[in-house]
Amino acid sequence: MTRATGPLAHALARGPVLLDGGLSNRLADQGCDLSGALWTGRVLAERPDQVESAHTAYVRAGAEVLITASYQVGDDPVLLERAVRVADAAARAAGHEVWVAASVGPYGAVLADGSEYRGRYGLDGAELAAFHRPRIEALLAAGPDVLALETVPDTDEAEALLGVLAGTGARAWLSYTVADGRTRAGQPLAEAFALAADAPEVIAVGVNCCDPADVLPALEAAASVTAKPLLAYPNDGSVWDAGTRTWHAPADPVPWPVEAWQAAGARLIGGCCRIGPPWIAGLRTALHRPPPV
């Protein structure tokens, strides 16, 4: 089997679907240079073959959804289209069904200063929508299966993203980055998830790039306001230092209570920064997904 033939939403209705892991850490393990504001986008621009190799490593680990390298690209239509095309190539070469999710990173990602972990950029909703609209249009034109509105730090940006999507017929998931039971900007999570509860474009809501300990409370908050499938792809509990552009790992590994996440409604489960193919292979076993061909 090659690229997925049915909508991701239908697969989520049947059971769990396995996401990939962190693209940046995999590219670093391959010896790629991620310095500069473009981050993984730099490798996409200079060595797209390395990005495809990284995607392929996750496919071989059993990932059923590949998130593109467009998170920090900005509005460059050439790179945005390339990000989808490279992931698509890896998906088509897979021996199992694989969907492509086009990453729509937050405004803070292009600032390359860790702003996505704070939110509150000083922009109003119209300015945020104007930033996201051409990126979303370019990504949709490239034909992904779904948009990944990910690492969203506050409700202002979520509202802007949902406004851009409204009426397009596109499909997307909305994923916040959270801490201590709130968005990174400090808003209540039930309020944040409720924004997407009635949005027909949104097929799932949840969290990513957060401490694994923050996942379950966030999923419970989401389940209290929406019946949509939930998603979770945390990092390993490390904290990003924007000044040194390094991760500070936790003193002790943070457990991943995957069964509890599923019981709370999580159907789309994977990893974010610092989660590599071996971890995704372990998740495949935990989720009882079939082995990759």
From TrEMBL:
<dbReference type="Pfam" id="PF02574">
    <property type="entry name" value="S-methyl_trans"/>
</dbReference>
<dbReference type="InterPro" id="IPR036589">
    <property type="entry name" value="HCY_dom_sf"/>
</dbReference>
<keyword id="KW-0808">Transferase</keyword>
<dbReference type="InterPro" id="IPR051486">
    <property type="entry name" value="Hcy_S-methyltransferase"/>
</dbReference>
<feature type="domain" description="Hcy-binding">
    <location>
        <begin position="5"/>
        <end position="287"/>
    </location>
</feature>
<feature type="binding site">
    <location>
        <position position="272"/>
    </location>
    <ligand>
        <name>Zn(2+)</name>
    </ligand>
</feature>
<keyword id="KW-0479">Metal-binding</keyword>
<keyword id="KW-0489">Methyltransferase</keyword>
<dbReference type="InterPro" id="IPR003726">
    <property type="entry name" value="HCY_dom"/>
</dbReference>
<protein>
    <submittedName>
        <fullName>Homocysteine S-methyltransferase</fullName>
    </submittedName>
</protein>
<keyword id="KW-0862">Zinc</keyword>
<feature type="binding site">
    <location>
        <position position="273"/>
    </location>
    <ligand>
        <name>Zn(2+)</name>
    </ligand>
</feature>
<feature type="binding site">
    <location>
        <position position="209"/>
    </location>
    <ligand>
        <name>Zn(2+)</name>
    </ligand>
</feature>
